[in-house]
Write a structure and sequence with these properties.
5% strand; 4 helices; two-stranded antiparallel sheet
Length: 135
């Protein structure tokens, strides 16, 4: 798919499915919910329940997700000038890893790394006296 952009791409904000901004309100809601249930346990005629804590956490998390969705929606509305030039197509030849090439590259890199390690070990052996601290 080829897209033509007529706007600045710095306006885009990448939002992960579980954003770090959900942890702050979720943590605050958990803390306040737990404190509320502890408080209710000491008040006559009221009882504390873990269900209330879970409902508090669920409510604030759903609210935070909705706020993020609205932020993404507003960002997408600001993007103007996007136009699809060609329709996306599925390739008839699926992309496969090049096993032979990967094994050859790994072999060459391993060989070079082992040679370099041998030279480094020889260097350390020859200069052992230099690296020792005088007693």
């Amino acid at each position: 798919m080829v897209l033509s952009f007529g706007t600045n791409l710095t306006d885009l904000k990448v939002v992960s499915p579980i954003s770090s901004s959900l942890f702050v309100p979720g943590g605050i809601a958990s803390f306040v919910g737990i404190l509320d249930e502890i408080h209710q346990a000491y008040i006559p005629g009221r009882d504390s329940s873990i269900t209330d804590v879970m409902l508090d956490i669920t409510g604030i998390t759903l609210t935070a997700i909705k706020i993020e969705e609205l932020q993404v929606e507003q960002t997408l509305k600001r993007l103007k000038g996007i136009e699809m030039i060609t329709q996306p197509n599925i390739s008839s030849k699926p992309v496969k890893p090049k096993k032979r090439q990967n094994v050859m590259i790994a072999g060459v890199v391993g060989l070079l790394a082992s040679i370099m390690l041998a030279f480094f070990m020889e260097f350390l052996e020859k200069n052992k006296a230099v690296f020792r601290k005088p007693a």
